[in-house]
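Notes to self after the Tuesday call (sharing in case useful).
The group wants a holo model before anyone commits to mutagenesis around the pocket. I volunteered. Ligand is magnesium ion. Logging inputs and output together so the record is complete.
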Amino acid sequence: MSLLSVEGLFAWYGSAEVLHGIEFQAEKGAVTVVLGANGAGKTTILRALCGMVRTRGRIEFDGRDIAGMRTDRIARLGIAHVPQGRGTFGDLTVEENLRIGGYAAAVADTDRAIEQWYDFFPRLRERRRQQAGGLSGGEQQMLAIARALVAAPRLLLLDEPSLGLAPRITQEVFRALSRINAETGTTILVVEQNAHLALDIGSSAVLVDAGRIVAQRPAAGLAHDESVRRAYLGY
Ligand SMILES: Nc1ncnc2c1ncn2[C@@H]1O[C@H](COP(=O)(O)OP(=O)(O)O)[C@@H](O)[C@H]1O
Ligand SMILES: [Mg+2]
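Result:
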């Protein structure tokens, strides 16, 4: 069953149309990977889901059409967004950043949610009083993910979580995402350039080109499909 179903979705920046009637689904409890070249429209898809760009079309989340809703209302319905570049506040401490995650989604017991994610990411607990700006890139990405999870979302959107991270750290981030999915059942939609790692943890892949969906396919075996490999995996 799909938790998210997008149909005939258009999006604009000013008068420039950048999504041209796209359609895809994210299965409940699964990890769905969005692949595509630079400028294909991947970030815009996530922004459209969060009500951050002007859209037309249908975005059905858990049976309800959320297209055109305000961003804060969408967050309270259970969609959390880890944007490209992470969006953590460097001047604030780790814990203050996590509190913002609870505040944004009006979480009832933020302290408890934060403790839960400290258990999951012990390094964040060790660094709770430190400024986020002083963390390593990998720790900042973990913080951005934990901040989104404090809201206990049903759908977690991630925009290129591996950007700027060393391969070993990227692997750690993907292992964490896989565990989060397995242990909490959170549905994940992840945009990623590092297609190999993403396809490893994903069950379905959405292929985007120039503002259109080319295909949505099971992730298994996709890395061995030659045409897909050349167009989307870059080798
Ligand atoms: N703020 C913006 N204003 C105008 N055009 C934008 C803006 N952000 C992105 N675009 C354009 O929209 C298209 C899709 O961009 P984007 O969704 O960021 O692609 P991707 O994330 O796949 O690299 C690109 O042609 C890009 O130049
Ligand atoms: Mg992008």
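Two things stood out.
The longest strand covers residues 2-13.
The chain has two domains: 2-78+155-233, 89-152.
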